[in-house]
Specification:
By secondary structure, the protein is mainly α. It folds into two domains: 1-30; 34-146, Cytochrome c/b562 (Four Helix Bundle (Hemerythrin (Met), subunit A)). 81% of the residues lie in helices and 0% in strands. The longest helix has 31 residues, at 116-146. The structure holds heme C (HEC). Residues 32-33, 35-36, 39-40, 42-43, 46, 68, 93, 96-97, 100, 126, 129-130, 133-134, 137-138, 141-142, 145 line the site of heme C (HEC).
Amino acid sequence: MFYSSRSILAFIIVALTSVPMVTEALADPVEPLALQKIMQDMGQNMQLITHGISQENWGLVEKTAPLIANHPQPPVFEKMKIFAYINTDMRVFKNFDDKTHEAATILGKTAASKDGHAVIADFATLQDTCLMCHERFRKPFIKYFYGIDE
Ligand code: HEC
C-alpha cells in the first residue's frame, strides 16, 4: 500500500487540528491599514540612515531623510476612518506628524553639510519624534483597528 495507515491517521489529525485555525482566519480578515506599510517603509529608511551614518555616507543620509519627511499619506477613505477614530486628538496626532516632518527635513539639510556629529544629534531628535507618537497612539490604534490588545 502506498500510504500506511499511520500516515493517513497523521494526515487526519493534522487536518482536524488545522480546521479551527483556518476558520478563525476566515472569520476575522483584518486588513492592515495602509498606514502600517507607510510606517514599515519609514522604519526601513531609518535603517538606511543608520547605515549611512556608520559608513559616513552623508549623501545617503541626505537622500533618504526627505523620504521620511515627505512620506506618502494613506488613501482618503482610510484617513477619514483614522480621523473619525482619533477625533478630538487630531491636533495632537497631526502635531506629532509635523514634528517628524520637520526633524527629517533638518536632518537632510545637516547631512548636506557633512557634519557627522550634528547628523547624529539630528537623527536622535528624529527618532524621538517617532517615539512620541508611538507612545501615545500605537497601542490604541492596534487595539481599535485590529482588535489586538498588546
Ligand atoms: C503621527 C504619529 C506617528 C508618527 C509621527 C510615527 N508613527 Fe510609526 N506608527 C504610528 C501608528 C499609529 C502605528 C501603528 C500602525 C498600524 O499598526 O496600523 C505605527 C507603527 C509603526 C511601525 C510598525 C509597523 C508594523 O509593521 O507594525 C514602524 C516600524 C513605525 N511606525 C516606524 C516609524 C518611524 C521610523 C517613525 C519616525 C520616522 C514613525 N513611525 C513616526 C504612528 C506614528
